[in-house]
Amino acid sequence: MLSRGDLTDAEWAVLGPLLPVSNNRCGRWRDHRQVINGIIHRLGTGVQWRELPEPFGPRKTVHKRHLRWSTDGTWEMLLQRVQAAADAGGDLDWNVNVDSTSVRAHQHAAGAPKKPPTTPPRSSKGAPQRSVHLHAHITLPLLLEEAVRQARPSAAPAAG
């Protein structure tokens, strides 16, 4: 079963050689491509890890690999290398537009009652629920940016 966000052969040719290799001390690793496709599926659909379809392999394996690569900086390294390759090929546009518009608050905004902010509802596993929907034709740098964005909050407790 292929998901609409699975890695193409061209994307895999770029990404595959950059991935860590097994040290064979912990046994054989599940195929990186299958695991990354599982992570792509989760990022694209927003499903919980326990709802990951079976063709992507054991959900625990996919989740642990995502966490491991989040904490050791693998996602950020992959993003930097893919961006550098795209920049060298002239495929990356670094133009940035900044909007300096300022908006005045309503006159009654200053006197609002001081209530503590409400926390968003959490899922049963303690992670905030997110609704992430990526486009069907996602590019590899955008995928890696999303992986890095989601990895940063989960990597913070492990670093501390």
Automatic annotation (TrEMBL):
InterPro entries tied to this protein: IS402-like_dom (IPR025161), Transposase_6_like (IPR052909)
Residue stretches making up the Insertion element IS402-like domain: 7-78
Highest taxon listed in the record's lineage: Bacteria
Region (Disordered): 106-132
PANTHER family: BLL5188 PROTEIN, TIS1421-TRANSPOSASE PROTEIN A
NCBIfam families to which the protein is assigned, alphabetical: transpos_IS5_3
Protein name: Transposase
